[in-house]
Fold each of these.
Amino acid sequence: MTATLQRVSPNPKRVLNRHDELAILKAMDARDEADENLRNTIVEVSARSSVRVLADFTGMSTNTISRWKADAKGNHRTRSD
């Protein structure tokens, strides 16, 4: 017995249309801008507040906030340094 192959139409859920792609890209750009704004604000406020207070308020780790402060000062060291 031989099987008959039938052409299967493509699944529309496996492809993004251009409108959806653009909507996602726009949302990603907005997220990146918001992340940058948050980072800059936390670094600015860290000059007047402790890292611990900022970490408690934001729910972020003290390590992240300390790294952001160091990056802003231009003296962040990587593990390979």
Amino acid sequence: MKMTKQNLETLFKVSLAVTGVATLVLGGAALFDIDLSDGLRRFLGIADLVAVPAFVYAALNKIKGTAQVEA
């Protein structure tokens, strides 16, 4: 599968948004001493674990400037 520049940009934006939302929710809950359900905490943690490597992949390819990358 080839990653076009548009797909890479979309991956970058979505993974950044997922990481940001998960960080805000988990950090805000810890800051304001709000108890989140175990399922929600695990879901956000797993979403963050998936989004961070995707973000790094997209960011490195964006910095490298390649329009098409073989996966």
Amino acid sequence: MPAVVGSAFGMSPTPTPVTAGLAGIFSGLTWPLIWPFFNGTAALGTVWLMLATIVLVALPAHAFVLGFKRKQIVRADAIDSALLVRIGAWLACAAATAFLVSGFRGSA
């Protein structure tokens, strides 16, 4: 019987600048599209906004920029340059995509 190498739930994505950029594009596409739905001051709108932020921004950023596994220990006085590159790629792609989406919708 062949051994199962991995399943969809057992695999953890390896964060790279490309995956960070794709996560930024996803967040940049979805955030401007859902924002008009949360213009009320009701408490329920605030809960949905918080949930949408976690699902559409924080979770993709954590999974594809930081990763779920820590491979090496970085000294306290050292800078993790690969992490900084991934954060920059995520932020640049998210900002550019959100700007483009808001421009196509007619609001800046």
